[in-house]
Specification:
By secondary structure, the chain is mainly beta. It has a single domain, classed as Immunoglobulins (Immunoglobulin-like, Sandwich), CATH 2.60.40.10. It has no helices and eight strands. Strands 1-8-7-3-4 form a five-stranded mixed beta sheet, with no helix packed on it. The protein has a three-stranded antiparallel beta sheet with strand order 2-6-5, with no helix packed on it. A hairpin with a 2-residue loop joins strand 5 and strand 6. The chain starts with a strand and ends with a strand.
């Protein structure tokens, strides 16, 4: 993810799950966590992972630290897959 955010923004992070045959597919269970620049790991509650359509999901993260955030989505069951995404939050200038 190449988009940069500012401290105080809400970063929308999306992921896609595909079946072995290549079509979009929902995992039986989906999980997410993120690591802000301070190194802590934050689990995303299941209700905060939004299903946009078959195989497409997102979560919104309120960013309050400058630096690089890492987000990990993973699915189990019907689709077993994981993806890690990073984005940058710019420092406040005022």
């Amino acid at each position: 993810m190449s988009e940069a955010f500012d401290v105080g923004d809400c970063a929308r992070v999306s992921t896609t799950f595909t079946a072995a045959a290549g079509g979009l597919e929902d995992p039986t269970d989906i999980f997410a966590s993120f690591r802000p620049p301070d190194g802590s790991v934050v689990s995303v509650a299941g209700g905060a992972i939004i299903r946009d359509s078959q195989g497409l999901f997102h979560t919104d993260i309120a960013v309050d630290q400058e630096g690089v955030y890492w987000v990990r989505f993973w699915g189990t069951g019907v689709v077993v897959a994981a993806e890690e995404i990073s984005f940058t939050v710019r420092a406040k200038r005022v």
